[in-house]
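in:
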């Protein structure tokens, strides 16, 4: 099966052998993760799609790829349109599409370990309109044809010290026990990998870019817990760290454990626990309680130690990014640099400073038309040379034990056009507006989203993604529940009230299809604001990311005095923070970039 067309045919043959008329292939794992291990990359193996979110549906005579607005260009580059039709979500959902395209009376398969129960209900209802049914499979048909499918990682767990975490695992479990008591529940299932890592103060290397370990956990009302993980992955140090209150069990003991709660109230998160978990609780006679995982909000509210660690990670990461941007400015116009070699050079600068555990996601290294693909992933086949005449966009981040970083900057290769400057300045104005926003405690991110869009809207422009996502503390670079996004944009949907201690990205952008892309991203911390005469508790943002914003792309005539003052103050802080860590030509370059506008 050397081609994706061959793989599609093989899957259709496999479905026929399993008496199925279709199958849904999501890009996730049994933990509903965004980033997944190699063993769970079924969608990429089947279709060639390299984005971080998407799904495919395969029927006997047709197949479809479902992606949101971030990937409408990328999917066309990576997935053959003669094999798959392209469907944009949320304009059309998978369930709605199945309700229109599934064969009358057909049997559509799904893996209950890769979907939520809400999705199962929605798809079942849509298929019923055609007299079709949704059928759970016990063996995933993609796995049956994926001959060289990788095995799950066997990397060891490592301890995240209480000093770095700012709170012991025992204290976190005690708070979860109190949470269970208020809900008169006996236990809670934790299936999200970052929730487990946070709750037990452990980290792992099972998923690229995200320091988590493949595991499940059940925390009980007395504060004890069962951690289901392959025994060979648990070192003596981890065993000692977990203590007697945490029982380590093999991963395959998780399913039987779920069936052992007859008559007990067991909480599980309907957004993060797959349908199979609820199915097994039902089979065992438990009384499932569909509520949000108690670790979700707790880990989003960073404690003082986590905030201090994040600032330290940003200070180090900023030096690497500055050295890289200087290198791009000086070397790219000479020729010989590609998107792929540029990404490798940025990694080299980060690694040279020491302490880098991993990148926090696959570096988005996009020149020209590839910069217009918001979540572009460069490959050997797609890598373009950086040539004079367009813009280079780089969105990247690092995983450090102290914290997780995420930053986007844009550099012109040669002289930018007036249009590029106009668009860049409008993006900057939106970025500044959001950074300076003052709002009541409890405001949801969707209410702030338009702050960043207005300068673009004024010119009849917009961007096809949310404006901000939450960020973890040496965990996932995309962390909920907080976000800054309107419901109709990727990353949107129900919005979480913003609270002091939450870290978010501020990343408006502009993308001209086939030509260039712009995005300016810093991370910010929600903090309390003392407003004289205020009648409500108020919040604002403290900037956490400090790297120069490219001045040659700014049209100063579009900037207000207040915006120029913000930029000058920001650059003064960049120089103050990074200058003492730099010398020679690097320092001279930094000072020039940070001079008052």
């Amino acid at each position: 099966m050397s081609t994706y067309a061959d793989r599609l045919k093989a899957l259709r043959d496999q479905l026929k052998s399993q008496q199925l008329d279709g199958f849904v292939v999501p890009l996730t794992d049994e933990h509903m993760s965004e980033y997944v291990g190699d063993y769970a990359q079924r969608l990429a193996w089947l279709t060639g799609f390299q984005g971080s979110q998407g799904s495919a549906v395969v029927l006997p005579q047709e197949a479809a790829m479902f992606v949101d607005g971030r990937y409408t260009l990328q999917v066309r580059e990576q997935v053959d349109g003669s094999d798959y039709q392209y469907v944009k979500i949320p304009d059309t959902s998978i369930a709605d599409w199945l309700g229109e395209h599934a064969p009358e009376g057909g049997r559509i398969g799904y893996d209950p370990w890769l979907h939520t129960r809400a999705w199962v209900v929605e798809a079942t209802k849509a298929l019923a309109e055609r007299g079709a049914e949704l059928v759970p499979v016990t063996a995933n048909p993609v796995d049956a044809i994926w001959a060289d499918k990788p095995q799950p990682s066997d990397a060891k767990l490592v301890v995240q010290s209480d000093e770095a975490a700012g709170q012991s695992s025992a204290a976190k479990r005690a708070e979860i026990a109190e949470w269970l008591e208020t809900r008169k529940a006996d236990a809670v299932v934790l299936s999200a990998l970052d929730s487990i890592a946070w709750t037990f103060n452990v980290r792992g290397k099972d998923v690229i870019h995200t320091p988590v370990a493949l595991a499940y956990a059940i925390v009980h009302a007395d504060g004890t817990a069962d951690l289901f993980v392959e025994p060979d992955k648990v070192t003596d140090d981890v065993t000692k760290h977990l203590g007697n209150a945490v029982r380590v069990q093999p991963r395959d003991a998780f399913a039987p454990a779920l069936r052992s709660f007859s008559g007990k109230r067991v909480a599980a998160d309907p957004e993060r626990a797959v349908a199979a978990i609820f199915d097994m609780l039902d089979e065992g006679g438990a009384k499932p309680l569909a509520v949000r995982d108690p670790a979700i909000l707790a880990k989003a509210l960073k404690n003082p130690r986590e905030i201090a660690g994040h600032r330290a990670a940003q200070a180090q990461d900023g030096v690497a990014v500055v050295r890289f941007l200087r290198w791009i400015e000086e070397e790219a116009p000479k020729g010989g640099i590609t998107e792929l070699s540029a990404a490798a050079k940025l990694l080299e600068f980060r690694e040279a400073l020491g302490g880098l555990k991993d990148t926090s996601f696959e570096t988005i290294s996009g020149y020209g038309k590839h910069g217009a693909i918001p979540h572009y992933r460069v490959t050997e086949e797609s890598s373009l040379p950086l040539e004079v005449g367009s813009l280079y966009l780089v969105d990247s981040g690092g995983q450090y034990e102290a914290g997780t970083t995420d930053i986007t900057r844009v550099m012109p290769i040669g002289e930018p056009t007036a249009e590029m400057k106009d668009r860049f300045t409008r993006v900057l104005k939106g970025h500044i507006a959001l950074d300076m926003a003052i709002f009541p405690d409890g405001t949801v991110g969707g209410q702030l989203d338009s702050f960043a869009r207005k300068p673009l809207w004024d010119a009849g422009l917009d961007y096809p993604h949310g404006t901000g996502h939450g960020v973890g503390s040496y965990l996932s670079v995309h962390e909920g529940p907080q976000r800054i996004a309107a419901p109709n944009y990727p990353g949107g949907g129900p919005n979480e009230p913003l609270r002091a201690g939450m870290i978010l990205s501020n990343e408006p952008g502009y993308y001209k299809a086939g030509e260039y892309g712009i995005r300016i991203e810093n991370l910010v911390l929600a903090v309390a604001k003392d407003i004289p005469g205020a009648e409500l508790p108020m919040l604002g943002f403290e900037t956490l990311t400090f790297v120069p914003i490219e001045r040659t792309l700014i049209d100063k005539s579009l900037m207000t005095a207040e915006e120029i003052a913000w930029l000058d103050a920001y650059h003064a802080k960049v120089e103050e923070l990074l200058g003492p860590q730099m010398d020679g030509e690097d320092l001279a370059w930094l000072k020039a970039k940070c001079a008052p506008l």
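note: The radius of gyration is 24 Å.
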